[in-house]
Give the backbone structure.
Amino acid sequence: MDFVHQFWQLTVDGLMSGSLYAVIALGYTLVYGVLQLINFAHSEVFMLGAFGGLFAARGLMDGGDTPSGLASVGIVAVGLGVGAMVGALAAFTLERVAYRPLRRRGAPRLAFLISAIGASLFAVNLAGKEFGRNNVSMPEPFTNGEVFKIFGASVNTKTLVIFVVAAAMLLILDTLVARTRLGQSIRAVAQDSDTAVMMGVNVDRVIVLTFIIGGLLAGAGGFLYAMTFTASFTMGFIPGVKAFTAAVLGGIGNVRGAMLGGVLLGLIESYGGYIFQASYKNVIAFLVLVLILMIRPQGLLGERLGRAA
Amino acid sequence: MLLELVDVEVAYGAVTALRGVRLTVDNGEIVTLLGANGAGKTTTLRTISGLLRPRAGQVLLDGEPLSKIPAHQLIRRGVAHSPEGRRIFPAMSVRENLLMGAFHDRKHVAEDLERVFALFPRLKERVSQAGGTLSGGEQQMLAIGRAIMSRPRLLLLDEPSMGLAPLVVQTIFEVIAQINATGVAVLLVEQNAAQALKIANRGYVLETGQVVLEGPAGELLADDRVRQAYLGEDVGPPESPAAPPVQVGEKIL
Amino acid sequence: MTTTATHPSPAPPTPSGSGLPPSIGKWLTEALFGRAGLRMLAVCLGLGVLSAIVTGPGSTADEPFDGIRRSVIDPRIVTFLLLGVALWVVVRVTPLVWPILVRGFEPARAQVTELSRQRYSPIGLNLALLAFAILIPLALGAPARQSLVNDIAIYALLALGLNVVIGYAGMLDLGYIAFFAIGAYATAYFTSEKAINVHSPVILNPFFVFPIAFVLAAIAGVILGGPTLRLRGDYLAIVTLGFGEIIQLIANNSEFTNGPRGAFGVPHLSIHVFGFHYEWGQDPLPYYYLLLGLIVITMIAFGQLERSRIGRAWAAIREDEIAAEATGVPTLRLKLLAFAIGASVSGFAGVMYASKQFFNPQTFSLQASFLVVTLVIFGGMGSRLGVVVGTVILQGLAFVLRDLVPATDRLIYFGAVVIIMMIFRPQGVIPSRRRKREIKLSEAGIGGADSLGAAPTAAGSQT
């Protein structure tokens, strides 16, 4: 069987895209944790972060030769940083404009979903207008050679960079939620926001910070994505749905669940896409979503932010 | 005066839940708030905590209106709230729950943890167990323990005896008295009027959002209407079932 | 922005008598140049710059910030900044002078209140609107007529269907256009041998496809909604979103559907009964009147539905799902019913569309689904007249401004409309009375206004 031959290569590819899904999924899961809402505009935070990182990196490279060594590291770092900042800014603005006024009023949940859709529509099409409606690809920030082989599967620089950066971000976030005071307040708001207020937690602030953290991750993730694939104004949609699926798969609201869900989904998709048809690869995530909703709606690790710690 | 409610009116949309409630709690007092379900007791506490905002009237703490102070800053002013239904953070351990009580100020955490464990040795045994897996009584202990972790001057307790076995209720009330003995004022909402009036200095009776009776605990305990309505005692035929309610603010005792 | 907009500084004491007290200048200064006032100024100026960018020239990825630069440097930025300043003054000063304004308008207000209380005869109003709808195309030119059918009438029908899902059952369906696609492709399959690569063994008149599409879309709705609706309502939104994308993906990639080229040559609608022959042709007008008829029938039918037991059960689900369940309302089945009804209307409209004109997978993009959501929200969820009028206004505006605003940029404005509506007028321009009351009550903490569970906490937000 060909599949057997390809197995390890597919695993490597799956882990790479899976770690990206995990990074984006955390944004959904954190916001879901504190607000019990699906943030439909999260995919646009990702998209804007991707453009931010891409333009910054491209500006540094100036269309010349593929840099190497320290220059490469610097470019990737700047791209990640700018992507993360743009993502954070977008998420912050989103919370202020599309969520907070409704929260103040105690609006019904449907209203939040709808205003997030509005924000998404606005951001996507404005990006389309300003950045053009074609796919934009980024010049290579480093020579994408093979670094090493594992079970016959080649791991190249890009895969390694993405995997390492994503893993580092996941680790930092996990520590943040489990160990810091901010993490403590995020968990308190997720479990019982009224009581958290009584304990002196400033819920508004926690919610903004949660959006910002999700935005930082999504923005950095967007840069990594743009580095591998291409960027376009509609690029957020598919990774968005997939990341959401990953979040549900692991148990929405659960930080480690989102990480597990992301990696699993990446693998499932990688194997599935090989076995079936590549053009239907995107259907796989959707099928996983529907299946998990039918079989185990609380996800693999169960819902609840606090449980991760 | 530590806490003063002046003609507080609270509404949920068109439904008025509190109408002109006047109430005071002085330093070091235990004041109990009695009343049937839906009388507005929990609404009163939530209003004091800033979770609800009065439509009219004012809540004064140390004579200063609370209307401008965000709810989450109240704990810094020395007001701690142990809410109805205990509201333990279910996925946090006992220790983490207690630490939440000291969220705003963690200078005395170690010392205060010891104090709580001295009051409720049971919590010490369960220190790393998840809050959601505790029994009802333990959760209540945790809720009170969490509230006093903030070293409050005023402790708001909402139905601490609800759904608990008599022996546990006994313990809880003893601890409330002990806490009060350290100088913490307590505003105690209770259905268990007999127990509450036994440890309280003064009491208020709330009916459909209004204070209908108020006075020293001893006198309330002796009042026929209180005994009949809240202590379940038969005190002979009522004067008249449709007796005109005592007017708000009118001293009847 | 929100702090100041929703919670203006406490209104000053009402000025006594007719003359303004001398301190008015102080209030003004405080309102405009206090901390909140200056913050509002920054927000308003920001909005001005944003509007300049949105309405300014676009750009491409090669020069990504060129469009923004040109929008900001262009002299017309001044206009936008002035508009921002005007907005700032209005927002900050209105709460101050509100008591005076109210007093001035008191007589007029009383009359309006009186009028709205009166049980005016809706029949008369409705007939007038209908007459307008019948006559208006006669006053329009050819492109406008075309748009009346393609952009307004079809979308009004779609919005009426989606209104059942959003307005009546309080759920969100983001893949609504997928059912429209099902209807359109079913038409191509059943009515023509060569529109797409497959065709049914029996070629039917498009009219017979209406019931087929109706049923197909409903079945798809039930299959999709069944497993999803058991869970939290907001999952439905994302599952439908995914479904919409998949239908488009299949349409694009499958050889049966002709792929991206789309379907050509689906026959026009035609009637052949008892020697009577009529065929809807290239002229948009006959289609318009057919659609108008359908819209009127749908509005009447949904009106009946709204007032029926089912309609009351939907209201009960929105306002308190648990209580509804407890009183014996089969909530899951009724939500599914709403979802399926919405889907079938969409399928129905798909037949209409397919028999009128060429379509390809692009027709069924996600953006089209969002567009219908926008129309329902703008008009007023739960209000039949509202969604139709909303469609006429928004789509009409888009048509009128077609030379100023490229079609691709329309959705920027529609997105902004959605957010603005949700912030300032969630009940829509022509609200349904019941929905309006529900939203108000729900915001005061009583009951719900959708079937998605409790509102995200508002506690702790500084008031």
